[in-house]
Protein 1
Amino acid sequence: MKECEIFSQLKVPCGSKILLRLDGRGFYKLSQQIGLKKPYDSGFVQAMVNTGIELFQEFSPSFIYTFSDEFNILLSDIPFSGRIEKLNSVFASFTANSFFSNILKSTIMEKKSYNNKGQVKNILQFLKTISFDCRVIPLSVKMVPDYFKGRQDEAWRNCLNGYAYWTLRKKMDKKKAINVLSGLKSNQIHDLLFEEDIIMGEIPAWQRRGIGIYKIDEKVNVYNPVMQKTVKSSRKRIFSDCNLSRFEVDFFQKIIND
Ligand SMILES: Nc1nc2c(ncn2[C@@H]2O[C@H](COP(=O)(O)OP(=O)(O)OP(=O)(O)O)[C@@H](O)[C@H]2O)c(=O)[nH]1
Ligand SMILES: [Mg+2]
């Protein structure tokens, strides 16, 4: 029967950079069920960042970029000999498990507002359905910056539309809000928000540009027993960057070469 496992030897192409994109399944419904703040819920975002850090600790990629309910993972060494079934299934299940425990911490365990046992049971029941899809995207080295620029543009569109939609929803129903927004150009959305005292340039960078997780050099003092004194050294540490600039080619040259 082994011959029926026709996809098991399907591998990523040799010589390519490999990108994995994971996306939460049905997270709109999840956001409603667990009562996330709109358009951004800091507990949810913290759970995404913590999950990104756990992915980094487990698989040592070059870079992870997250916004909304997605993770973009630029692999360094390609695990499982590049077998696509393994990459998709292991990354998706690892991410779902990690996100489940992180969102549990930032909702039920930290929010004092769920004091009713029935409500907690319902939320727990819903959190058990958490799953992520995963796709494998082979890219040439040259395409890596463009890929991330594309995702960052998507984060920005999400941010602008999210603020506009939820600002309008304070005054009108869903249908009307969608109607008002349809066909508006981005400068018109800016004006609409400006009238409500929301200046998009002042929104936190992590909402406008997403969050990057990567390794940085850190200076540390270590005791050298041979010299019998404390000396300066440097070591790498995982860093979650909530203050990203707009992605440029240079940023990825450093990430890929490190
Ligand atoms: N309220 C709130 N919702 C969020 C936040 N981050 C992500 N979301 C929700 O996550 C959704 C992500 O978009 P999609 O991936 O297109 O929607 P989905 O429901 O997950 O659909 P599928 O991915 O196709 O299964 C958004 O539409 C939001 O509803 C947040 O900080 N606050
Ligand atoms: Mg989704």
Protein 2
Amino acid sequence: MIHTRLTERFGLEMPIMLAPMALAGGGELAAACAAAGAFGLVGGGYGELDWTRREWEVAARRLANKAAAQRVGCGFITWKLDQDASALDWVLDQPLLPKAVFLSFGDPRPYAERIRAAGARLICQVQFLEQVPQAVEAGAEIIVAQGGAAGGHGAAAATARSTMVFVPETADWLAAHAPDVLLLGAGGIADGRGLAALLMLGADGVLLGSRLWATCEGLAPPAAKELAARTTGDGTARSPIFDVLRRKDWPAEYDFRAMRNALYREWEGREAELRADPDSARAAFDAAVAAGDFTGANVTVGEATGLIRDIPAAGEVLRRIADEAEARLGGAGALINP
Ligand SMILES: Cc1cc2nc3c(=O)[nH]c(=O)nc-3n(C[C@H](O)[C@H](O)[C@H](O)COP(=O)(O)O)c2cc1C
């Protein structure tokens, strides 16, 4: 077993956390990750109360009376909470309290006290170094440094940081200013090489989205997962195209990585035109979603798709990654990055 400050403080058997994934990472996936010894986050996402309630209750049923119930939390998109925080309020009031709340994409400070008062720990995902002091001020126990390879939303393509540089730079900042705060790296990690590399870059663990999306428990349609398992890392890109098509009003500093399918390529480089007159493209998108046609519907996966070649159970993926990292690091033993 790999020991890091993350495994020690969060009672984990591997230094891995499931990313919260809006609509794709529900209670089954979070519970499976927790049961395997990682930390599982239900993807509260856009804060729809019905979805969060249903998926949190699935996780609660799966983890009832199990020690793994200590390893589950819920994530939210912070700027959506600014419009409606009812799902956060609901989950903080449940018999199975989330052990951590994960916030990304906005200022976490207005929600920090509410989360702490309920007894949950705060995890903040950041895309830029300048967001780190704000997250520390909010009382985050974990900062997740998200690089541009990540699937789903992240920093807009022109300014996105690379995981390879952003993680050690954030590690240096935390060592100098907030040495007790833990650091996870995210974006492009899908195997034991990635976990071992991120630990060497100064992280206490990793956050996995795409790799765990492509598992039996992930809620994405099977055809989307199978497509991801056949696509190389060249096959995704970041842009606002799918946000415009999905009528999602994201702040300009963020955009969205997904597969470059036929509808995406039609609009690539023509985002201003799409924004000016989106109706026919939205109709094509809606029709593709209704038909389960992934030449038009988005397949939300990151560059790590090039490292995904099968769709196993989440527990198997996690064990493989932990075992491979341990072997590459020369076996179990001392605390890494004490
Ligand atoms: C399908 C999908 C949905 C996501 N939804 C969210 C979300 O709702 N909230 C969030 O903070 N991050 C979300 N993310 C980003 C993850 O938090 C994480 O940063 C990312 O998955 C890490 O990169 P990876 O996909 O290469 O593992 C999503 C990622 C994916 C792949």
